[in-house]
Amino acid sequence: MSTFDTRNRPVVRDTHNKPFNTLDGGHDTKPDITISRPGFPTNSNSKLTKWAQAGTVIELKWTTDIFDADGVHDSKESRAALVQLGKSARSLLMASGGCHVYVVACFKKGMARILRFDRAGFRATHPFNWLDKTSDVFPTFFYRLYNPNGHPSCMDGDDYTIQRPTQSEKKLVYAALCKHDDYAKRYPTIEEAATDLEHSRRITAVRFVTEDNKRVPKLVDCFTIGSDISYKDGLFGRATRVYRVILREDFEKEKPTIYVLKDAWRQTCRRPELDFYDAIAAHCKANEINMDKEGMAQCRGSVDLSADDVPPGATWVPALHLTRSSKDGPEFERRHTRTLLTPVGTPLKSFTSTKSLAKALSRVVSHHKIAHDAGVLHRDISDSNLLFEEAVDGTQEAFLVDWDYAEFTEDGLRLFHEAFPERAKQTELYQSIDKSLKDFTGTLPFVAIKMIQNMDENVTKETPHAAEHDLESVYWLLVWMILRYTLHGRKEGDKACSNLFDTPRIDSKVSWIQQEEHFPSAEGPVFRLAEELSRRVWDQNRPSWLGAETLTHTKVLEIFERHLEADDWPTDDAARPFRLPSGNPIKESLQRQVVKRESAKRSHPSYDDDDEAFPLDASTSSHGTTAVSSGSDGPSASKKRKLGKRKGQ
């Protein structure tokens, strides 16, 4: 590498005893050999100990190869070696924000493999003897890695649609923020904005504009403001990052708009989130529903960076933004997408009173009903997908967001094709509705009981996901928020929430709804609301011979409206800080990992998740938060607990 141009030349350091700080709160790691990104100081005193400085790493083993002679990694040693490489790859992806990265494994004193990791999996070369004088693999590989052909990146795999803004651009960003009521108060001086501006990024995205009565995509520069709103960066999965951004073209506006920019890698077989936003917007327009007045999330622009039909003026290489590592076929490769949304949200756990919380949940039922009338099912009601709109005056108006795992109903797909006939042909690319609605989808603590029962290996006829299951998720979300952020009075205290939700089985939920009273020592409208909803959830899940009654939007909204009219809502019961239950943190952490793995056992490749650090199966994700698994091939669960009579009935 000494012959490389100085602009592209890295340095190589022995770092086997140098801890690299973790990027996600886990353990520090010590890569054996670290090769820097270009531009790192060649001074021998310069410390190479940060992942943002690293371009690639080499891990050394005396004998252990990640694969055995049959091409599998079943031994304890080979799996441990692969996990180590995967952790380094994840850190490199997190630090660089790139599309793919490379790591190297050296073993048996002369053999090596090069591994390429992206968001769908990894590929590895056959072992080669890098000490063989005739071998040119390493020279060729490192030259191509640091001298990428066809695009202006520093390294192969870099996403050059993300750049650091210039100092003059940062000043323009600050001047624009000063014209915004909320952000002018946040940053009264440029010095107070310095930290957030220092970490700002300029990201290429698309905003929709109307020309000749048609919607057309227009390239825009988005400048991030402050820290990321959301950062879920598993090795394999959607790797969703959500930014708060301002657009360059809005700098001169009297009052610029602050947008949300969502960056994610979706599976090819999954319908773009844009389709669901468009279907809902078309329904609202046809039925004269004012989405702004309703406070609904709206898509302002979207782009698939891997698509061949790039917007006018685009300079990126689409192939860079399409993974090529899925072992399950091209339909499970991932496509890099960016979606521009409004409004900007704040977490549900920031509620200023329990009445604000109840109103938020009522609002999400209203938004869900509008979407369902449009033929769209959300399928992932959770604490991260229900947000409060940022507001200068402190008001808390909630909205439902994140339609990644939504699906059309049969009527919804028909209406969508009528509204957007040019997209009808694309439907054959995506998973069928019948199959998709039987997928296990959602954030596990909030998933409806019958959906969890679908995971039972003894179930021969799965229940398709329907509106009533999302409505049940609203109830579990309310219970979650009560147990974590209010004085609920249950004797388990801080452990009440984990006791109910930290399990992939339905037993705890079934036992919960069979109880007559859940908050016997707590008083107030929010607890009365929860008790009534609990009875309705019980009605939905009891056996048919006891007269099961399905939840409906009308029924649930009526319950919320009646309780919200109560005159004894307190005004001083804002969310309390949640404290993790005390105990042995290492033991509890291991227990949580076991629970999450158990919840995600599956064999179908459509399982998809954001939060996995590094799964043992090296081509798909296996964590227990937002999960998708298909039908009878989905996660295995305990035997179904029979739903008998509710206690006291």
UniProtKB/TrEMBL annotation:
Residues 1-17, 595-607 have a biased composition (Basic and acidic residues). It comes from the Eukaryota. Residues 638-649 have a biased composition (Basic residues). Residues 618-635 have a biased composition (Polar residues). Coiled coil: none annotated. Residues 1-41, 571-649 are annotated as: Disordered. Residues 225-607 form the Protein kinase domain. One of its GO terms (molecular function) is ATP binding. This is Protein kinase domain-containing protein. It comes from Mycena albidolilacea. The lineage of its organism: Eukaryota, Fungi, Dikarya, Basidiomycota, Agaricomycotina.
